[in-house]
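Retry 2 of 3 after timeout on previous attempt. Resubmitting structure tokens to design endpoint.
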């Protein structure tokens, strides 16, 4: 039976680093306040002339090199993002052209916020198994600094910019690669985390700009409570569905949103924090980019070895959520 594997990974973070000390000059906050509530110490911020596609391309180039694949071999390109270059066309089409992916490739964006990379992986996995596609490039990329209200100290301290990518291919070896995935969404929680302006419900206008409708808005307590609940549920279900125990999970790569969420997940699942890969202290919440960015770092740090089980788990605006189990 064929399997779909992660053949290569790559990531990119903009050069500019914005520390908590820097933020103290912008809004009424302190390093202690930010770290105690989120675990974040710094984040990367894209340059004014850097768009989401630019970040995506740099991470994709690294992933292609890691997989020893040329862009001309990619026939499926999916970009997961909440901050596309344009409302239309898709950022995937921009990436396709600049990266050199051939015109016959299928290219589109996925909007599932912080769960976007896992959604993209599930879609690519299914399409590859139809035998209509041979090589997929999936990218999570965000320029969240472009939709953050830098006067709102409750949100501007949390988010950063970055990108991560993975190359997926089919191999004739059972029991490796993407073992399973469990995705979901709860539309009742739409207003817990959203950007009200810019869509058909609230088109861009002078009024929408002046009233801050084009910035992220978040109900922090509701997001926290539901994030812990759904991430624990899908993580536990994924382990149980595949007749594993939590002790058999070598590494958990969670969405990097808040250290307290990750610590709660660790406690509830009975998996020690030592098995969680955490880099949010250096990047903040990069939404769809957070899991692939952490995956690239974890692999380069030697945290992933052949035969290991790695569990990805995420939640995001929507509220979307999901878990994916990988065997290397």
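Retry 2 succeeded. Sequence:
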């Amino acid at each position: 039976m064929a399997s779909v594997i992660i053949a290569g990974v790559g990531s990119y973070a903009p050069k500019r680093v914005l520390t908590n000390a820097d933020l103290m000059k912008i809004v009424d906050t302190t390093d202690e306040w930010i770290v105690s509530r989120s675990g974040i110490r710094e984040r990367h911020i894209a340059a004014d002339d850097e768009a989401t596609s630019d970040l995506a391309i740099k991470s994709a180039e690294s992933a292609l090199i890691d997989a020893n694949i040329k862009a001309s071999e990619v026939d499926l390109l999916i970009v997961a993002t909440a901050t596309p270059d344009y409302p239309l066309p898709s950022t995937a089409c921009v990436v396709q052209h600049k990266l050199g992916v051939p015109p016959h490739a299928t290219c589109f964006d996925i909007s599932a916020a912080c769960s976007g990379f896992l959604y993209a992986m599930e879609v690519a996995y299914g399409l590859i198994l139809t035998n209509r596609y041979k090589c997929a490039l999936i990218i999570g990329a965000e320029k969240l600094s472009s939709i953050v209200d830098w006067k709102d100290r409750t949100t501007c301290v949390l988010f950063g910019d970055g990108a991560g990518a993975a190359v997926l291919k089919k191999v004739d070896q059972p029991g490796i690669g993407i073992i399973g995935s469990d995705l979901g969404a709860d539309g009742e929680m739409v207003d817990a985390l959203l950007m009200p302006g810019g869509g058909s419900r609230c088109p861009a206008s002078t009024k929408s700009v002046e009233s801050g409708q084009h910035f992220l808005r978040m109900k922090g307590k509701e997001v926290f409570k539901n994030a812990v609940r759904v991430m624990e549920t899908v993580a536990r279900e994924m382990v149980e569905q595949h007749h594993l125990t939590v002790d058999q999970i070598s590494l958990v790569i969670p969405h990097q949103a808040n250290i307290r969420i990750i610590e709660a997940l660790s406690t509830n699942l009975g998996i020690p924090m030592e098995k969680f890969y955490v880099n949010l202290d250096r990047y903040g919440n990069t939404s769809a980019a957070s899991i692939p960015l952490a995956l690239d770092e974890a692999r380069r740090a030697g945290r992933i070895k052949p035969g290991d089980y790695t569990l990805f788990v995420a939640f995001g605006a929507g509220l979307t959520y999901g878990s994916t189990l990988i065997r290397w």
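Attempt log closed. The CA atoms of residues 6 and 18 lie 32 Å apart.
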